[in-house]
Amino acid sequence: MPKLKVPYAADRTHALRSPDEAEKGHDYFCLACGDAVIFRKGKVKVAHFAHKAANICSQETIIHKTAKALVYNSITEWKSGKADPPWLKRNCVECESDISQPLPDALPGNVQSALLEFPLPNNLIADIAIINGTDRPIMAIEIRATHAVDERKASRLLIPYIELDARDVITLPRIWKPLVDNLKPFACPNCANNLKAFEIVTAAIAGRMGITLPTSYYRYLPCKCWNCGRQIIVFSWPEDDENPRKQPRPITLQYRFSKTAGHKYWANVCIYCGRMYGNHYLPFPFPFERGTTPEVFKQDIKRLANHASAIGLIRTNESKHRCIIPSSATPSLFDKPA
């Protein structure tokens, strides 16, 4: 009968041991079925645990229970002060880059403990539940050995959850890359800093212009007037609207005649020198949908903040944010009249 591979085993104190930590002459037990395992270590063979396959144990069960035990240990050792908290590998909701985030920052409350096989509402059982100071579950962790969390269970979970690959956990017990991430969306520090800088810069320029920044419909960016060189705010709006009907309309959007276009249309105008901007010279990186919700508007502003940083309109210097218009900054965007 083939022997099952056992990545971790329990010693007589119920502590988890890897083959590298085990010692000959000590007793070790399978986490899945409790049977004694064989520890082998020699000059040729790499140290490992194994035991014979049986009806009450399988490779899948061993992998699943080992990963659960490692996740549980990672949390309990952190809370007891023996180790740093686990880290999550998450995708930034703004730039989509892969960023590490400490577990406490991803949670909706403070952590008191972790519990295995925790009963949840709707007759569900969480592989691991993270519990807060009032003994309430604030997060569930599901372990995938073979099968993913089914859609029915996922739709009935009433708390945030992540799903981890069992083999990934066994390889890196304290660095988790979720297969499913149902936690609050995560913005990386760089994107958060870009947004803060963008808000400071655009508010300062709008204040000098004597205008109020919109909170819906009209998107905006800082810009340099191609004629007078002053810093201004330029606006864009849903591309399906030929006329920016949404009120209040920024005073720098005016219905003007363009020699280039040969007709009148709504365009941005410099509040200082009165010169007009052709829409195709504006520095907006993407079109905007019609009838967007406040949530989509906020998302677009975050994307514009990253864009402004990427093309050098906004630069962060320690805690001071400045609007930078380099002399060589994208002439095609700033230096041509309508």
Account of the protein in words:
The strands form seven sheets. The protein has a five-stranded mixed sheet with strand order 8-9-10-11-13. β8 (113-120) and β9 form a beta hairpin. It folds into three domains: 1-57, no CATH class; 64-181, tt1808, chain A (Alpha-Beta Complex); 189-334, no CATH class. It is of the alpha+beta class and 338 residues long. 23% of the residues lie in helices and 27% in strands. It has seven helices and 19 strands. The chain has helices at 59-79, 103-106, 151-156, 166-171, 189-209, 294-310, 331-334, and strands at 3-6, 9-10, 16-17, 38-40, 48-52, 87-91, 98-102, 113-120, 124-131, 137-144, 161-165, 175-176, 180-181, 219-224, 231-236, 253-258, 263-268, 314-317, 320-323.
Indicate the topology.
Elements: E1 3-6, E2 9-10, E3 16-17, E4 38-40, E5 48-52, H1 59-79, E6 87-91, E7 98-102, H2 103-106, E8 113-120, E9 124-131, E10 137-144, H3 151-156, E11 161-165, H4 166-171, E12 175-176, E13 180-181, H5 189-209, E14 219-224, E15 231-236, E16 253-258, E17 263-268, H6 294-310, E18 314-317, E19 320-323, H7 331-334
Parallel strand pairs: 6-12, 10-11
Antiparallel strand pairs: 1-5, 2-3, 4-5, 6-7, 8-9, 9-10, 11-13, 14-15, 16-17, 18-19
Query: What proportion of the residues is helical, as a percent range?
Result: 10-25%
Largest sheet: 5 strands, mixed
Beta-strand proportion: 25-35%
Strand order of the largest sheet: 8-9-10-11-13
Mean pLDDT: 85
Ends distance? 81 Å
Number of strands: 19
The total tally of domains equals 3
Rg over C-alpha atoms, rounded to the nearest angstrom:
29 Å
Q: So how many helices?
A: 7
In terms of structural class, how would the helical and strand content be classed?
alpha+beta
Write down the overall geometry.
elongated
Low-confidence stretches: 323-338
What is the N-to-C order of secondary-structure elements (H for helix, E for strand)?
EEEEEHEEHEEEHEHEEHEEEEHEEH
